[in-house]
Amino acid sequence: MDENKKWIFHNTRLLLEKYRDVVWSLEVSAARLNSEFRAEFGSTLEEFLDLSYEAGLDLPEADVTARIHSINKSRNMLRIIDNAVSLLREKHKNGEKFYWILYYAYLSPQELKDTEEIIEKLIPYIGEISRATYFRKRDEAARELGNLLWGYTTKECNSIIENYFVDKEIGGENE
Predict the structure, then answer these.
(1) Which residues contact 170 (CB under 8 A, 6 or more apart)?
(2) Which of 9, 50, 121, 167 has an alpha carbon 20 to 30 Å from 111's alpha carbon atom?
């Protein structure tokens, strides 16, 4: 693996490993901010922002505004990841399998206790697989997701086209 591919794989795995923590932190931050707004202004943050927007008010660069921007930035980052996962699932020839592997390994709300539990959860979606196959497919799914998130090199485009734009025969063996 060349250095660029190693970088993409490493960063994608790191991002996936932090996904649940970011989602949880975002939920807690939004709930806390909403509680503070309800206590201080008698409305949720979203209601307050809607009223401010309708009234034409510019919010000052205060702590609350900075926190709102931070929450929105995190939400946007999660949307990028979620969209890339959806694209992988819908368009890659192994997308459905990759989706379920990534879901149980990194994206599900509750982290599973170990690899055996993940493999057990995968059976309805991809069938029986060995531990070694699971790790190989998990890494392959992370590499493909990384390619979507961080981009491709020109050299890689031919193999990418084969993975994302395969001809599928209706009712045929290529599905």
Answers:
(1) none
(2) 9
**How many other CB atoms are found less than 10 A from the CB of residue 47?**
14
Question: Residue 78: CB partners within 8 Å, gap ≥ 6?
Answer: 19, 22, 23, 26
| Sequence-separated (6 or more) residues with CB below 8 Å from residue 83 | none
Contact 169, 175 (CB under 8 A): yes
How many helices (H) and strands (E) in the chain? 7, 0
CA distance 175 to 166: 9
CA distance linking residue 33 with residue 27, whole number of Å: 10
| Encoded tokens for 133 | 């196959």
What predicted TM-score, i.e. pTM, was given to this entire model?
0.69
